[in-house]
Amino acid sequence: MSTPFLDTARRVIRTEADALVALADSLDDRFRDAVDLLVATRGRVIVTGIGKSGHIAKKIAATLASTGTPAQFVHPAEASHGDLGMITADDVVLAISNSGEAPELANLIAYSRRFSIPLIGITSREGSSLGAHCDVVLLLPQLAEACGTGVVPSTSTTMTLAMGDAVAIALMENRSFTAEHFREFHPGGKLGARLSRVADLMHTGDALPLVKDDAPMSEALMAMSSKSFGVVIVTNQTGALAGIITSGDLGRHLEGLMSKTARDVMTSTPVTIAPDALAEKAVGIMNMRKITCLLVVDPTGGNIPAGLIHIHDCLRVGLG
């Protein structure tokens, strides 16, 4: 059912979506020039803007920093009262103003020109005060704001945010920035958990319930109960993985269990995972197999058990 509120929401979103298409179609060699300038910088990207542009600038700075491009937001009003000292000759300034006439930017623009600090502008008016002084202008299409009255920054801020994302991801791809690099900047929260490696969560060394394949089951049961994983890792005489003993294996060999060896009871083809695999993959395997832990084996390390990862380790960091 259509209501006035829904009609408004759909109009706003479609207006902004159309603006993003227009923005994509408008990009030209100046976008490449801006990225080349940023790639060549030895310092940071100083992102600045006032009002709604300032809020967008903060997000762009955060996105740049989290994707491998050192960046910092500098408030233009604070810059006029001492924070210009945060900007060095090795930096690049990315200034945002839809009109290009924000008076608060004047001192920062002048400072960048005085000390030959490269200046990139994001604006919808190339001939504005900002546009006229920039080394590179990233020009936004001059389109109506989604509010219909032209007074609420909406279409313009959406385009600016998208332009910032485009710059950040272009730089990221230029630097061959991988998920592993991304994880280093995002160790916390759900995202950090999703990018965790098995090696980050697995148990190793003395924590592992290990027995040789010729060990009596009394020794295997002792290892199982003392390590609290509910499994025993069985190795051959050279230390390579031979199998695993689970509670299910115990149930299948109850008759005469204590007269048997670990080799007699073990499952000789256990499911394993590599230490550099994503922990999220380990969770998927455990869920699919309906098991609570996985043996970790480095395929390049002679099939030697490297560790053990338990579903509780994954749940603790927010996976599962």
Keywords, separated by commas or semicolons:
single chain; 320 residues; alpha/beta; Rossmann fold; CBS-domain; 2 domains; five-stranded parallel beta sheet; three-stranded mixed beta sheet; 15 helices; 11 strands; 45% helix; 15% strand; elongated
In short:
This protein is of the alpha/beta class.
What are the SSEs and their pairings?
Elements: H1 4-26, H2 29-40, E1 45-49, H3 52-66, E2 71-73, H4 76-79, E3 92-96, H5 106-114, E4 119-123, H6 129-133, E5 136-139, H7 155-174, H8 179-185, H9 189-194, H10 198-201, E6 210-212, H11 217-227, E7 231-235, E8 241-246, H12 247-252, H13 262-265, E9 272-273, H14 279-289, E10 293-297, E11 305-310, H15 311-316
Helix pairs in contact: 1-7, 2-7, 3-7
Protein described:
The chain is an alpha/beta fold and 320 residues long. The chain folds into 2 domains: 4-177, Rossmann fold; 198-316, CBS-domain (Roll), CATH 3.10.580.10. The protein contains 15 helices and 11 strands. A 5-stranded parallel β-sheet has the order 2-1-3-4-5, sandwiched between helices. Strands 6-7-8 form a 3-stranded mixed β-sheet. α1 packs across α7. The longest helix has 23 residues, at 4-26. The chain is elongated.
- Can you tell me the number of structural domains? 2
**Beta-strand proportion:** 15-25%
> Low-confidence runs (pLDDT<50, min 5 residues)?
none
Number of helices: 15
Largest sheet: 5 strands, parallel
**N/C terminus separation:** 37 Å
CATH topology term of the largest domain: Rossmann fold
Q: So what's the CATH class of the largest domain?
A: Alpha Beta
Number of strands: 11
The residue-averaged pLDDT reads 91
Overall geometry: elongated
- Helix and strand pattern: HHEHEHEHEHEHHHHEHEEHHEHEEH
Query: Structural class of the secondary elements?
Result: alpha/beta
